[in-house]
Specification:
Length: about 150
Amino acid sequence: MFRGVAQLNLDAKGRVAIPSKYRDELMSSCQGQLIVTADPSKCLLIYPLPAWEPIEQKFNNLGLDERSRNLQRLLIGMASEVVLDGTNRILIPAPLRQFAGLNKEVALVGQGAKFELWDDAQWKFKIANTTFMDGDLPPELKGFSL
C-alpha cells in the first residue's frame, strides 16, 4: 500500500530515486519492474507490473467507441516498462516527462496500489485549489465520514 507525498528531484537524465519506504514492497511484489504511463490529469501513473497487467487487459477488452479508444491510446499507448536500477532510481522516458510537464522538482504521491508523479508546482497548485463542498462529492461518497 503506497501512501504519502515525497518531494523529489529528477536528475539531468530524467531519473528519479524511489524513496526507501517503498523499495522493499516494490522489490518483493514486482522485483522492481514498474509501468509508467500518462494520466488525463497531466500527471504520470506508476504501477508495479502485477498491478498494471489486469488494467491493461481490461483496456484491451474495451469496446471500440471513440472515448474508450482515446483513453486506451493514452494509457496503453504511452505506457513504458521501467526497472529500479542499482541505486533505486527509475528513468522516466522523455515523452512522458514532456506530457506531464516534469522539470527538476517532482512530487511522488502514493495512491494505494499505484503512485502519481506530478510536477511539484502543479501538485501544489492542485492541492491548494481543491475544495470539497457537499455538491462536489461523487454519489458513492455521499454520507461518507472520516
